[in-house]
Amino acid sequence: MQGSGSSQANSQQQQEVQKLRTMLQSGVYFVQLIGKIGDRSTITEYNEAYEAGTNGDAPQQSSDSRKVEWTFEFKDTPEAGQQATNTRLISRTNFEDGDLIPFLSLLGYEYVQRYYVEGKNFYSQDTTLFLHRLRELPALQPDQNPTEISHLPPPDKCRLLDPSGSWILEASIDIADGKAQELRDRATRQLMSIRETLSPSVKLEKPDRLALDTRIPVRVRQI
């Protein structure tokens, strides 16, 4: 039994090493530092801290930061092709504590911007349905740290990126081994089944690959 467990551990480690090699060889990708705030009660506490800060009283920095689960997420840009779904490499690393922005700066990453995502996850077998929308966050002052929650305004005070108030529904499946064709085919069938099931209510389409490429500038057309 010990030999079997050791073999499985080695196999999993080899998969992680191969995944890391593929990630480092990827030509086009982007990274995000994601802070999971929590439920409505937690956001209420942040709002109270924010209001206290705007009134001149310093919010409890250490208490706020302990409530946030930080994750460093890597995503590559899907390859072009006629596949029914987009496939991309994703790597997530949990950060428990420390000065995150200086640490990432030492790795060669530069802070660009931040935004607020509000939404819910729903699960159907292996499929994750993410219903969400984006809100713009105000620019930070030079002396402010993007990871300090005291600088996070209440959600209802952040302007929606889409002024119509529309929500985005994203269907996805995480695969442990992206090179296993059997797993990819099964995931594609499940996603197609979810799309068919939801078709009377919402139309799910594969997003344009260029829309997921951070090298392409975003132009807003005014009508």
Automatic annotation (TrEMBL):
Protein name, per record: Mediator of RNA polymerase II transcription subunit 18
InterPro entries reported for this sequence: Mediator_Med18
Species of provenance: Knufia obscura
Organism domain of life: Eukaryota
Keyword annotations: Activator, Nucleus, Transcription, Transcription regulation
Subunit architecture: Component of the Mediator complex.
Subcellular location, principal: nucleus
KW Transcription (keyword) present: yes
Subcellular location: Nucleus
Family: Belongs to the Mediator complex subunit 18 family.
Known role: Component of the Mediator complex, a coactivator involved in the regulated transcription of nearly all RNA polymerase II-dependent genes. Mediator functions as a bridge to convey information from gene-specific regulatory proteins to the basal RNA polymerase II transcription machinery. Mediator is recruited to promoters by direct interactions with regulatory proteins and serves as a scaffold for the assembly of a functional preinitiation complex with RNA polymerase II and the general transcription factors.
